[in-house]
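User: I'm new to structure prediction. If I give you an amino acid sequence, what do you actually give back? Let's try with this one:
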Amino acid sequence: MKITIDGKHIETEENKTILEVARENDIFIPSLCDHPRLAPFTGCRLCIVEIEGRKNFPPSCGTYVEEGMEIKTNTARLRKWRKQILELILSEHPNACLICSEKDKCDEYKSTIRKVGEVTGCVLCANNGRCELQDVVESLGLDKVSYPSLYRHLDVKKEDPFLDRDYNLCILCGRCVRVCQDVRGASAISFIYRGTRAVVGTVLDRPLIDAGCQFCGACVDVCPTGALFERRIRYETLPDNEVRTICAFCSMGCTLNMNLSQDRILSSQPLMEGVVNRGQACLRGRFTVRDIMYSSRRITRPMVRKKRELVETTWEEAMDIAAQGLKKYKGKELALVASSQLSCEDIYALHKFAQDALNTKNIWNGSGHSPFAAFARVAERNGLPGILNFRIRDISEAKVVFVLDEELIASHPIVWLEVLEAVRKGARLIVASGFSTFFSRYVSLSLCIEPGSESRLLQLLSKFLLEISGPHSFSQINGFTSFRNFVDKLDSSRASEMTGVRQESLREASRLLYGEGPAVFLFGSGLTRSPSGQQNLVSLWNLALLTGARLVPLGLESNLRGAYEISRHFPSNIKDVHQIIQGIASGEVKALYLAGPMPYLGRKKPEFLVVQDSFMNDRTQKADVVFPATTFVETEGVLVNTEGRLQKAERIAQPLGEVRPDWWIVTQLAHKMGKKNFAYKKSSQILKEISGVIPGLAKASYPPLKKGREIFIQEKKKGERKFLLPGATPPEAEASKKYPYLLVLDYSLDYYRNLSLSEEIKGMGIIRDSRWIRISPEDAEELQVKGGEEIVVESPDGKCKGLVRISVSLPKGRMKASILWNDGSDHSAVGLMSFSSAQSLSLGPIPVRIKRGK
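Assistant: Good question. You get back a string of structure tokens that encode the predicted 3D arrangement of the chain. For your 854 residues, that looks like this:
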């Protein structure tokens, strides 16, 4: 359609507001309550415009364009009304600095004046220089406020981690409330009271941590004033540079905008134009990047062991000692562990180093038990299409979303935002899990299943769905007759006994999957890591075939998908990292090159240990040589997110001390060991080699990635759509009289390389401490334990320690924890590791017993 704004003829599309069209055409209309990710609110009224043929002044943020509209945005009447509206807003906001005639002359004093407790002017505010209210006052030329000023004298709320709330500066635009409710689905804050007492707050004025806050920072990012601000940057100078990069804390690959001052990281915010996250982030990406960069545990110089002590040394000496030490061993005597949080270039260099320099096939990068590897194995063995790629935006278009054994808000918060958008569009959300989820208020149907019964659940759903749809639609698909005979033999009257779910609920789930439209199944390691993981995937494949649903595997580490593609090129004898630990214990593995996380080294240290890491930990304390490696903000490289999307992460900060990229370290060490096929001077040369030898990464190249071109893993899409027989499901562990509880190990989400974020960062430890074990209140009462009390958890083959967290959501007799088994050393109590053994072991529920005391 064609419209006119301020005499400018514009062609635009329907379903756009006047404000949107104006912004797209560089026409300024002031606004304080509007935001690109939020629905029109029309609260501040600053964006009023004149429309030919209409009375009054409609708000442009809530008025949609129509064919032939003639709009004026900057008339004398509009300027007059906007100034009056702005004066009313400023009557309850400190305004002395905003209208001061000499405000430009106090720049040299701002850095000291702002360090006061109470904000009564711009020079005291953490948002000074980046405040939208300042911009609007400047654009309207306001130099006085005609109404009496009222300071609200509200207490500044500082009881929560990471952020403070000063509602004396709030203009009630509602952005924070709406982004928390409509975009994040948390609804932790809302408007409370009415009239002049109206304010944003929580139920019963509780701290955010008690109100269900996710601490994603979305409210801070949309606040147009300084009412919400990140605590640690309040006294910092304004950034002098902004650089974007890809976050490496999880598998989503969010684009972050890093704020720097004199090449030092101040803070990080999600980039609004980020193709994956669209202006949203999570707790880790929003608040912890600076902490990991400048951690007190950072290793900044090479170290070697002399007289039983680690001492700092030169790169030359450390390389010589490492090379000479590794040369003493051959083949099976050597092992290498790589991190799936590294870039493709780093992972490839480490694998090549193991193969060519160490001459060993004992290589592990953590991808072997990933949902990608599990699904690919099923596809390859049965000749199915091996499609793992997807686009995250497609999730929001589904009519039914089925989540299996995942707590998305914690594990994949950006995926959860797409699920929430689908629900708001009318999609039905089904959750099948042995434990409650954080988003239960949005669930259409919750299936609380017995641990280990996932395969049987999916088979019963297939049985009931066939009863609804009839067999005629699928009779032409290979394997259908055998599959139908298999599910027909299932005793539906025992559905509840087999799965823990009532038959009526299973039939309701089948009706939703059959009748609502396109469905998507979201699954991760919770479905694939147990001994019955392969059967679970076969049963899921059959159900997806019946419903026409899309399967979406969700990894956890930032480059788990890339690590899997690279590992397919290098043969390995290692199925899980515990093989290496057992090899060390037996003496078969004598030397270990550790460039990735391990749950523990065992009681017996290898004869020669090289650690390549960014942070000090118990593994580095045992090392013979320690190489300091860069973090993701100090190096560049390609990461492949859980969609299969290749993304270029940029170096945004100067490396600390003498740290070096992982690929550089193994390249130099290979030279020391006499290998000539490591002639890499920059990471782009490694990527070029990768694109030539690894089919999935054939299109990997820096120039198109820097330009924002979409590049995905190249997949083998050929294969036959056919039904499969699940086969016998391995028996799961059962509780007994001696071990009456079932313990489910989960991933430790909050770690980077070998650094536990919940231990390193105080705020993370307050929000979610992975050391705690969740049990039901009934079990806690029976055991006579209370929250925070230390207990001993024993399994038939070992023991660990933990703290009890009472959770009303867990069924009686079940527990859940992100923990590690104690290896017998003093420092390896449960939770003190940043890497869950569920990462490397295929584990189902473990029978345990609980004892009080230490």
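You can read the tokens as a compact description of the fold. Here is one thing that stands out. The chain has five domains: 1-74, 79-238, 303-362+560-700, 371-389+398-553, 741-852.
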